[in-house]
Write a structure and sequence with these properties.
By secondary structure, the chain is of the alpha/beta class. The chain folds into three domains: 3-261, 2-enoyl-CoA Hydratase, Chain A, domain 1 (Alpha-Beta Complex), CATH 3.90.226; 298-473, NAD(P)-binding Rossmann-like Domain (Rossmann fold), CATH 3.40.50; 481-692, N-(1-d-carboxylethyl)-l-norvaline Dehydrogenase, domain 2 (Orthogonal Bundle), CATH 1.10.1040.50. The chain has 28 helices and 19 strands. It has an eight-stranded mixed β-sheet with strand order 12-11-10-13-14-15-16-17, sandwiched between helices. It starts with a strand and ends in a 6-residue tail after the last helix. Bound molecules: 1,4-dihydronicotinamide adenine dinucleotide. 1,4-dihydronicotinamide adenine dinucleotide binds at residues 301-307, 324-326, 330, 381-384, 388, 391-392, 409-411, 432-435.
């Protein structure tokens, strides 16, 4: 039973009780419907109050039931709302704390609504690529007015109840109280017990003085803002139905819209992301109740590009940070950059002066390891050289207090090796931030073979505290994200060999939805970085095939924006990428030198080769246990590499296409003479999934 029933005087009180937010799962719906029936049958009951136990009235659908047949089992939400609306005795919703999605739709089915000030009210379905499917698009415009309802439904954003109560003419709330909402609702119910007819939101009219013009204006606005997402416009059409159609016809149109959106890849992707985000913080063999180490003070070693950004995350979260460097000038430079970043935020009005001052007050600097001895977490972000890391970790081992977590931000070095420089490898972990570290959401938490479980659990929790999406990776060259991107970059190179221009590749990838194509990205990050890595790789993995086009580019000194020329030309002081005749000529010579024949390549082939390269490498990562689950890979790409959100990440995208089709395409790519045929052998996991007719998720 997930709802309780009691009688106070002549009022029955039904309390939804399905922690944490009284999700309207099957058992809760059934219990609520049974409560209404019981109240109908009890002659001593004259009115009913519905409320929620604990921290919510109701947060809406029960996410545990998402996509399962239970979500639709009768009484489904529509049926429950029907039972409530058709109750012969008045039903009053006692709303507090959180009233969202299906919770608000249920409240709209009640005859009256009493709300506590501060309640967050929303119809957030659009954020999952859906529209409210249990009457929300029909009843909210009738109760609240067309414009405010449309704003809520298209944005999905919560609004506090007392704000909505100020909307002129609104019928959403009959009463707002400051506290004790259930007592107030019981008193209200007793007052209206004998009043007939019972008011129903469905009987109200949703009116707008210039409906046609207003909706046309809104269509233009919403259409412009929601390019890749079909849901906002469908929400709008559903709300227009509340004005233009009879209630039952509007309900039918809403249901059709809901069903259509449910099948869109965009909604599938957004729902996938919703769950992927929640599951990413879980580690299979680390129990959820693992006691955490307390983190009250943070040390950062190195005040360069990464050290400064990393420090800002902790300052923003209210944690004191001490940065250590070898020279005062380096400290001064690092602190100046932090200040510059904050000042830019202040200028844009994104940060208040007093908050800026409070954050800077938490920052201290030092040249002495002694000042790190009371830090609970120390993150190293010094030069990417194993000898430098060794010296740093030996000193940390000597001064850090017992139990302090020692983290490295290394992007390519072996975390196990770094741990071995200390006498406490169990306290060592990788915390791989992405540049700019104060902006990018992704944090790869690199688990060494000795890393203690409570260290992992603590780092995952601190990741959440500093508002990162933390994903666990095992130790390997490049971890999850960069190991995959290497294959993506190789494909980009082969595409040039075969006749694409950098601009053609970037355009196709950007049209697919990536923030930036590989060549514009290379110019931004600096092509010399990849050059240095490739030089090392040629030695490490002599068999690995690469396009040498990027080397030819670097030999021309074209490192990217910082040298004013890269894959593109740049005008002084500007960032616009202009296709370069010099690069065209270089590529033509390069093709001639390697005996490559130029051919026409479609945008689809470009995108599929780049994305399937990610997918196949990720399948290897999953098989090796480096990544825990396919959805973690998606989180890495969505939060760290600009993969289009509405496609749900590379693995979700591959699932959407069908893994069989992915493998068929890979077999075609393998025949390409310029490509690395061996790479396209499907990873064993991928082959197995296809053989079993399964998907990654
Ligand atoms: P950087 O060159 O901008 O900064 C390194 C800083 O460390 C310099 O300020 C230097 O003075 C200081 N330093 C060097 N040796 C030191 C020592 N023994 N003690 C104290 N300070 C010392 O380098 P960046 O880009 O910040 O990289 C730092 C680390 O972060 C590297 O391991 C790198 O692989 C990693 N990383 C870099 C990313 C990037 O996009 N730049 C992304 C993710 C990780």
């Amino acid at each position: 039973m997930t709802a309780h029933y009691e009688v106070r005087g002549n009022v029955a009180v039904i309390t939804l009780d399905n922690p944490p937010v009284n999700g309207l799962g099957f058992a809760t719906r059934a219990a609520a419907a049974a409560g209404i029936e019981r109240a109908e049958a009890d002659a001593a009951v004259a009115a009913v109050v519905i409320t929620g136990a604990g921290k919510a009235f109701s947060g809406g659908a029960d996410i545990k039931e998402f996509g399962s047949p239970k979500a639709l089992a009768e009484p489904n939400l529509l049926s429950l709302i029907g039972v409530v609306e058709n109750c012969s005795k008045p039903v009053v919703a006692a709303i507090h704390s959180v009233c969202m999605g299906g919770g608000l739709e249920l409240a709209l089915g009640c005859h009256y609504r009493v709300a506590q000030a501060g309640t967050k009210v929303a119809l957030p379905e659009v954020k999952l690529g859906l529209l409210p499917g249990a009457g929300g698009t029909q009843r909210l415009p009738r109760a609240l007015g067309v414009e405010p309802a449309l704003n809520m439904i298209v944005s999905g954003e919560p609004v506090e109840a007392q704000m909505l109560a100020m909307v002129p003419g609104q019928k959403l709330f009959d009463k707002i109280v400051d506290a004790a909402v259930v007592d107030a609702a019981v008193a209200f119910a007793a007052e209206v017990a004998d009043k007939r007819p019972l008011p129903k939101v469905r009987d109200l009219k949703a009116r707008h003085p210039n409906a046609e013009a207003y909706f046309q204006f809104a269509r233009n606005m919403v259409g412009g803002m929601s390019k890749n997402y079909p849901a906002p416009l469908r929400c709008l059409e559903a709300v227009a139905g509340a004005v233009n159609l009879k209630f039952d016809d509007g309900m039918r149109a809403e249901r059709e819209g809901f069903a259509a959106l449910m099948l869109t890849p965009e909604s599938k992707a957004l729902r996938h992301l919703f769950f992927a985000e929640r599951v990413a913080s879980k580690i299979a063999d680390v129990p959820e109740d693992t006691p955490l180490r307390e983190i009250k003070k943070v040390g950062v070693i190195g005040a360069g590009t990464m050290g400064g950004g990393i420090s800002m995350n902790f300052l923003n979260a209210g944690l004191p940070v001490t940065i250590l460097e070898t020279k005062q000038e380096a400290l001064d430079r690092g602190v100046a950059t932090i200040k510059k970043n904050y000042e830019a935020q202040v200028k844009k009005g994104k940060l208040k002066e007093d908050k800026y001052a409070a954050r800077m007050a938490l920052l201290s600097t030092t040249l002495s390891y002694d000042d790190l001895k009371d830090c609970d977490l120390i993150i190293e972000a010094v030069f990417e050289e194993i000898g430098v890391k060794e010296a740093v970790f030996k000193q940390l081992d000597a001064v850090a207090k017992p139990g302090a977590i020692l983290a490295s931000n290394t992007s390519t070095l072996d975390v196990d090796k770094i741990a071995s420089f200390t006498s406490r490898p169990q306290d060592v972990v990788g915390m791989h931030f992405f540049s700019p570290a104060n902006v990018m959401k992704l944090l790869e938490v690199v688990r060494g073979k000795a890393t203690a479980k409570d260290v992992l659990a603590t780092v995952m929790a601190i990741g959440k505290k500093i508002k990162k999406t933390a994903v666990v990776s095992g130790v390997c060259d490049g971890f999850i994200g960069n190991r995959m991107i290497e294959q993506y970059s190789r494909q980009a190179g082969f595409l040039l060999d075969e006749g694409c221009s950098p601009h053609q590749v970037d355009k196709a990838v950007e049209k697919f939805g990536f923030a930036m194509g590989p060549f514009r990205m290379g110019d931004l990050a600096g092509n010399d970085i990849g050059w240095a890595i490739r030089k090392r790789r040629y030695v490490d993995k002599p068999g690995m095939k690469y396009s040498a086009s990027a080397d030819r580019l670097c030999e021309l000194g074209r490192f990217g924006q910082k040298t004013g020329a890269g894959w593109y030309d740049y005008q002084p002081g500007k960032r616009d990428a202009i296709p370069s005749p010099v690069v065209e000529e270089m590529l033509a010579k390069h093709r001639e030198a390697i005996g490559a024949k130029k051919r026409d390549i479609s945008d689809e082939e470009i995108v599929h080769r780049l994305v399937f390269a990610l997918v196949n490498e990720a399948a290897h990562l999953l098989e090796e246990g480096i990544a825990q689950r396919a959805s973690d890979v998606d989180m890495v790409y969505l939060t760290g590499y600009g993969f289009p959100i509405w496609r749900g990440g590379p693995m979700c995208y591959a699932d959407t296409l069908g893994l069989f089709n992915v493998v068929q395409a890979m077999k075609r790519f393998a025949k390409n003479p310029m490509d690395d045929g061996a790479f396209w052998t499907p990873a064993p996991l991928l082959a197995r999934l296809v053989a079993e007719g399964k998907s990654f998720t």
